[in-house]
Design a protein that fits this description.
The strands form 3 sheets. This protein has an 8-stranded mixed sheet, sandwiched between helices. Strands 12-13-17-14-15-16 form a 6-stranded mixed sheet. Strands 9-10-11 form a 3-stranded antiparallel sheet. The protein has helices spanning 10-19, 32-40, 59-72, 101-120, 130-144, 181-184, 188-195, 212-225, 267-282, 287-295, 320-333, 351-358, 378-385, 396-406, 419-429, and strands at 49-54, 77-80, 92-94, 97-98, 149-153, 170-173, 205-207, 229-231, 236-243, 246-253, 256-262, 304-307, 311-315, 339-343, 364-367, 391-392, 412-416. It is built from 15 helices and 17 strands. 52% of the residues are buried. A hairpin with a 2-residue loop joins strand 10 (246-253) and strand 11 (256-262). The protein starts with 9 loop residues before the first helix and ends with a helix. By secondary structure, the chain is α/β, with parallel strands linked by helices. It has 2 domains: 10-295, Mur-like, catalytic domain (UDP-N-acetylmuramoyl-L-alanine:D-glutamate ligase); 304-429, Protein-Tyrosine Phosphatase, Chain A, CATH 3.90.190.
Length: 431
């Protein structure tokens, strides 16, 4: 690596980031701090083009499809997503590969040194938060590695999110639903207002199908800022074939049709694919490139099948809409099969709503405790949910081993409820 660097090792950089506190618990929404930091770094966020993606559900999957297709088109891509499943390096990808631990540590050194200097002279009020720091690191790495187009996923909301300092070539808003109400509001309209904050004057925006109240807010904001609003619903699905491990369909849009072989699992991914296709069409990507790129898309931990006989699925269904999507998939694609469900969740989640969608589908239910400070204790989940039939196995490794040992080859094992649980289980299952 060239440029300013410190000798900060990767484990030390990760420890410092974690010491800043949980990225949601210690979040400080606002753009003043990140803008001051980026100005001191000579504006790395201005050195490439961006596709900026917000929404409640499907934004990560949509980002993955966008990036993979752009890469198929020969573009040097960047991808910034959160949270990570196993290592923080996963959050920043260049040309499809997570940055190395050395690059991550280098970028941390650059950003941390700059932040400390700004704090020392009173130019910013405090060291940037976990999310602000890693977001700035992503911009620095994109500049360093010569990224041409970066796909940028908001962390929370949009209007005051640390990613919302870019002037994007295109904005994309996936379905808006309830999540993080403590920060974003208690109504769909309030949440949509926060998501609509990524719309920029004169920059086109592609929006997924939305609740009526969310669409009204998006339309109103687009008109206020002069952002042309394009609807994914202008594309329709023909000849849909849903199968347990993906889908096939024809995407029929304005003046073109694209045959889609989608490896991402679940009916909800069809809608995400339409949103990605509408965005890629607006970017001028040829139909055949879109077809090839989507067929090659991978998005770990979101209805990902990692073993067969029995089928083992990982899915971070951590909010009501995600739980409904997983429940719909299980009912449609695995009706009649015995479902083992391993479930763990963070304390900011509404167990009554998520559990209502998922727990009745499980023939065997195991509650566990992800290795996170803000995780529900497994016994608490059983008490709160009233699921007295559920087994409590606090250690994730033991919970997974139990299900694999006792399940029949014809059964389905689903590990869900939190991306932190999914990441922990994935590391065990893929080792």
């Amino acid at each position: 690596m060239t440029g300013v660097a410190l000798s900060t090792a990767y484990p030390e950089s990760v420890r410092f980031l974690y010491a800043l506190g949980n990225e949601f618990k210690t979040i400080k929404l606002g753009l003043e701090r990140i803008r001051g930091l980026l100005a001191a770094l000579d504006h790395p966020e201005r050195t490439c083009r961006f596709v900026h993606v917000a929404g409640t559900n499907g934004k990560g999957s949509t980002c993955a499809m966008l990036e993979r297709v752009l890469r198929e088109a020969g573009v040097r891509t960047g991808l910034y997503t959160s949270p990570h499943l196993v290592e923080p390096t996963e959050r920043v990808r260049i040309s499809g590969e997570a940055v190395s631990s050395e690059e991550f540590a280098w970028a941390f050194g650059v950003v941390h040194e700059t932040a400390e200097a700004l704090v020392a002279r009173g130019a910013i009020d405090m060291h940037p938060t976990y999310f602000e720091t890693v977001t700035a690191m992503a911009y620095v790495l994109f500049r360093q590695r010569g990224v041409e187009v970066a796909v940028l996923e908001t962390g929370m909301g949009g209007r005051l999110d640390a990613t919302n300092v870019v002037d994007p070539r295109l904005a994309v808003i996936t379905p808006i639903d309830f999540d993080h109400e403590k920060f974003l509001g208690n109504t769909i309209a309030q949440i949509a207002f926060e998501k609509a904050g990524i719309l920029k004057p004169g920059r086109p925006a592609v929006v997924s199908r939305q609740h009526a109240e969310a669409m009204h807010v998006l339309e109103q904001r687009a008109a206020e800022v002069g952002a042309p609003l394009l609807r994914a619903s202008d594309w329709r699905v023909d000849h849909l074939e849903l199968h347990p491990y993906g889908s096939r369909f024809h995407a029929m849009g304005p003046a073109r049709a694209i045959e889609v072989d989608l490896p991402l699992i679940g009916a909800h991914q069809v809608e995400n694919a339409l949103t990605a296709i509408a965005a890629l069409a607006e970017l001028g990507v040829p139909a055949e490139t879109i077809r090839r790129g989507i067929a090659a898309t991978e998005w770990p931990g979101r209805l990902e099948v990692v073993r067969r006989n029995p089928d083992v699925f990982l899915d971070g269904a951590h909010n009501p809409a995600g739980a409904r999507a997983l429940a719909g998939y299980l009912r449609h694609s695995h009706h009649g099969r015995r479902v083992w469900m391993i479930f763990g969740a963070m304390r900011d989640k509404d167990l009554s709503v998520i559990g209502h969608s998922l727990f009745p589908l499980a023939a065997e239910l195991i509650f566990t405790t992800p290795n996170q400070q803000r995780a529900f204790d497994a016994a608490e989940i059983r008490e709160i949910s009233g699921e007295s039939r559920a087994r409590v196995i606090p250690a994730v490794a033991e919970a997974v081993a139990t299900a694999l040992r006792e399940a029949s080859p014809e059964d389905v094992v689903v590990i869900t409820g939190s991306l932190y649980l999914v990441g922990e289980a994935r590391a065990l299952l893929m080792s």
